[in-house]
Protein: Peptidase
Amino acid sequence: MALAPQTFDPKDFRRALGMFATGVTIVTAHAADGAPVGVTANSFNSVSISPPLVLWSLAKSARSLDSFTSAGHWNVHILAEDQVDMSNLFARAGEDKFSGLQLDPSPSQAPLLQACSARFQCRTMFQYEGGDHIIFVGEVIGYDRSERPPLLYVTGGYALAARKSEPVSTEPRADTGSALFSEDLLGYLLGRSHFQFVGGIRSTLNERGLSEADFFVLSLLSVQAPLSSSAIAGHVAYTAIDVGPVLLQALCDRGLLEQPQADSFALSVRGRDAILHVLAAAKAEEADVIDQLGEMEAAMLRNLLKRLISITDPGLPKLWTARTDS
Ligand SMILES: Cc1cc2nc3c(=O)[nH]c(=O)nc-3n(C[C@H](O)[C@H](O)[C@H](O)COP(=O)(O)O)c2cc1C
Structure:
């Protein structure tokens, strides 16, 4: 069906195209005048495996158009999820995009950027007219990849990839029935994942005779100390555990805390030793989980948990930024 010009809304068309999730690339070349050029492009796609071909398209309005149409080679960099700043830099017209950037040696003179998810070094095979863009098809003459999770772009914004639990399969699927409603409840999922995760360090806590409340106080004071009793209570308020003077006094009596001044608490040498052991066990547990999740989904999980924490934050003091006792 042809789109009637009077009803065609380019912005709406762009929004519909934005439903197609892509990665983000930077394509670079060496201009005839010797200057490096580069643009952020999400129009990149694979074309053929044998021979290995890829494509991308560049707006005819781009300043770098002449450089790309006359360059015989270009490099495509699939950006990693922590390269948003670089994506934004190369999406700005006419900036000195390469100053201060570390480059790798490239067989062609096209700049080769570092720390990406994957890189493809290409030789121009074809150039096609594509409306207000030029389509470049390149033969891949070299490539490499890393384990860095890729950056995505969808509905006009950057995103991270989350893998679905269902595998890619062309086999006919048996009906597995629908999951119980309660299994999808966020509260259940968060609670269960918390308790299973903490369960991994419970034996270390038990060995040291530490309760969960002791653990919260000691780990807090390993990040920020000294703190007053009210500051400690404020920081661990999210756990709903009441950290009162009795608990703090008991920790002092056991030699795990010391009081540099009245109503001021810090870890003793013994307390520091105890919490370092527990934190080491927690790190090992985390490393195991990340290993099984993979870096990409671990980054995704951290991102979502941080968002959930900030959405539900009732106004707790900031542990990692505020360094003074209040
Ligand atoms: C995520 C993202 C994807 C983009 N994809 C393309 C693309 O595929 N083709 C294109 O011509 N411009 C694309 N752009 C816009 C260019 O990066 C931008 O116009 C750039 O300034 C062109 O550089 P130049 O004018 O210095 O040549 C994209 C921008 C962003 C932020």
